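Quick illustration, no need to memorize.
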Amino acid sequence: EQFIDSVPRSLILWEVTQTLPERSKLHDIRLETRKRTISDEQEEVVGLLTLLGVASSDASISAYIDLLDTCGQFQNVSLMYAQQEGDTTKRTFSIQLEVRRTATIAMGSDQ
C-alpha cells in the first residue's frame, strides 16, 4: 500500500506557514491520504490537504492561494469558501490542495 510519506510532514508544514500572509492565521491543517482510480487497473494515492484559517481580507486569501499554487509543493489548489467573520472585517476561509509526490525543499542561503 502506498502513502504520501515520500513527502516529509515538516516540509508540508513549513511551506504552508512560510507562505501565509501577514495578519493571517491557520486554525486547522488536515492531511488525508486518498486513493484515486486512474484506469481499470491503476490507482493513484493522493495527499489531500485542507487549510482552515482567518485572513484580514479577500486579497490576502487570494495572494495565499497564488503562493501555494506556484510554490511547486502543491497542485490543484482550490478555495472552498471565504466568508466574513461576525461583525469584523476578517474573513474565515478553507483551502483544499493536493500534495505533489515529488515535492522537494529549496531553501535559499542568507549568509
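The helical segments are 9-18, 58-70.
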